[in-house]
Amino acid sequence: MAFDIEMIQKVYANMASRVDAARKIVGRPLTLTEKILYSHLWDGIAKQAYGRGVDYVDFAPDRVACQDATAQMALLQFMHAGKSKVAVPTTVHCDHLIQAKVGASTDLAVANTQSKEVFDFLSSVSNKYGIGFWKPGSGIIHQIVLENYAFPGGMMIGTDSHTVNAGGLGMLAIGVGGADAVDVMSGMSWELKFPKLIGVKLTGKLSGWTAPKDVILKVADILTVKGGTGAVVEYFGEGATNMSCTGKGTICNMGAEIGATTSTFGYDDSMRRYLAATGRQDVVDAADKVASYLTADTEVYANPEQYFDQLIEINLSELEPHINGPFTPDRGTPVSKMKAEAEANGWPLKVEWGLIGSCTNSSYEDMARAASIVNQAVELGITPKAEFGINPGSEQIRYTIERDGIIATFEKMGTKVFTNACGPCIGQWDRAGADKGEKNTIVHSFNRNFSKRADGNPNTHAFVTSPEMVAALAISGRLDFNPLTDTLINDKGEEVRLSTPYGDELPSRGFDVEDAGFQPPAEDGTGVEVVVSPTSDRLQLLAPFEAWDGKNIVDAKLLIKAYGKCTTDHISMAGPWLRYRGHLDNISNNMLIGAVNAYNQNTNSVKNQLTGVYDAVPAVARAYKAAGIPSIVVGDHNYGEGSSREHAAMEPRFLGVKAVLVKSFARIHETNLKKQGMLALTFANETDYDKIQEDDTINFVDLVDFAPGKPLTLEFVHADGSKDKVVANHTYNESQIAWFVAGSALNLIAAQV
Ligand code: F3S
């Protein structure tokens, strides 16, 4: 599992020259974020200053991490790149597909049976292509990345939105879609709009019941779920250096909940301590040599208002514990105000469950602080009023807290110890009685609390708070319990008080583990066979999409004219379809089923021009494909907004759609369509959208002259024989046109090997 010290040393070797050159070009002191961005330019030394929130820039990330749900399609695509090995260090983590029900050993055995073929596939592809594989039960992706791979000043991408967690170790770590990960694994650059910068100055010091979690709960309350969009949040100040490294990870983790591109902290002693405790003194030695490049220039933090687009200041000495929710992580309530808020809003006061874990809060310190509260309850003779469950963040954490008696403490309170995995955080929680839909309250230390997320019950009011507050609220059984001021009645009827939580930042006897659950890849993977059953309904090997035949597309049928909002969820729904994320044919049965048909205002009901009968969108697309007829999708504004999931582009490609013509695109989806070898076009004149009729047949007039900056012309032939010519703009450059010609970006990479 060894981290790649040589790669890290290489990054540091380039740092000084690249950052110094960037500072000269930009003409002012640099923030940490800018230093990391400019030292990871694909083209090496900076040749120009980039506009924040304006310029798209190519970067060269140092690492890639994938979780089991998203890795399937990413790796199926990577297999087509024709590479014998990944170009940058990459890991795969099995953490999403394990349900929490009875307890770790039983639940893990069930998952290993139910998802065996997916795990076997991920294991064999990883083994073949030089990817580190973390087995089911090894832990949650972001905790393992922090423990093993994150390093100050590095840049990584991951196919999970909480990849941002690695900012706790001073990285710029960013969540992406699988197609982006495939590019980087294949040795290509990765594009990002140069972000805006939000500075958060932390003064004072955390104490008592207040934890790092409360910092981000407060920031979420201030910025809301959209406030960080397009920005990197950079934390600094004495409050930042006074905090543990894993606490910094918690804060960066929930940067995803404010929509931030990522969050980060400058290199400091807490990172040195954490790196050393996790067996990476080599990284400390290397980082110390370039320490001034691993934090902002001194002038930046002295006069932050001059260098950040937005500045927030929080005094940690005055910060109260927060409880955010229900249903959204940005609805913040300080613990002292919860009684009044809960009563005013009719939130159920009885707490049914307390859950500790998720990638947000499952460090040694988190577990130790929560256990200190549980221990007090046991010693004070209080029987807890709510049920309690924990998901340790990694096997290393679980083994160490078991050795140190922390698990035994939790078990004294009847706590269920679930697998080292996401569990309830991703809705993998078989909660007894949740199907009854009763209104109830749970508290957890996770990051997201959207309706139905944990247990599928829309009436579960989930509140996000720190692990120690979860413990206190679960013991009291009350949402309005304030451990700073309130007392509890113990089993003998005596009035007792919980004192402040305490937990070591790092285990005094060091971390320990017997089997961390890591499978290193084969040195030479050429002989490794990738296991995919041809009868599987969850996995399917991909066949390359066919190359363009060099002719105009003619006699295409209109598949759907989508009306209004059409996000990636409308194009490729999640929920039950998650199961088919590794099977393109099966998941294509959800293609555009959420899009509204402009002609009848219904979803998943479009006219099959061959029969005149209305049918499901995927069924009609399949009928055209079977008849050898190309099809075209027409859409409205900001088509494809939402997630970066590549399925939303792969499914139409697979079902024979050749072009998507819309009023405007969400940028990532537009790129995804291009990568899959499709034509992503926009109306030169938006009102032409109204000319498209339900029975139209479409001919391209000048596709044979496809060139950068040159609009294309399409002829729409209506049922009565009349015709409309529509001019379509596009943003393809030469290399993107080459993707179209080759059939996909991957085909092109494979052809170049
Ligand atoms: Fe897993 Fe929840 Fe984190 S799903 S990766 S624990 S946000």
UniProtKB/TrEMBL annotation:
It holds the Pfam family Aconitase. Keywords: Iron, Iron-sulfur, Lyase, Metal-binding, Transit peptide, Tricarboxylic acid cycle. Pathway: Carbohydrate metabolism; tricarboxylic acid cycle; isocitrate from oxaloacetate: step 2/2. The keyword Zinc does not apply. SUPFAM superfamilies: Aconitase iron-sulfur domain, LeuD/IlvD-like. Residues 557-686 form the Aconitase A/isopropylmalate dehydratase small subunit swivel domain. GO terms for molecular function: 4 iron, 4 sulfur cluster binding; aconitate hydratase activity; metal ion binding. Residues 34-477 form the Aconitase/3-isopropylmalate dehydratase large subunit alpha/beta/alpha domain. Its cofactor is [4Fe-4S] cluster. Its EC number is 4.2.1.3. GO terms for cellular component: cytosol. The keyword Transit peptide applies. GO terms for biological process: tricarboxylic acid cycle. This is Aconitate hydratase A.
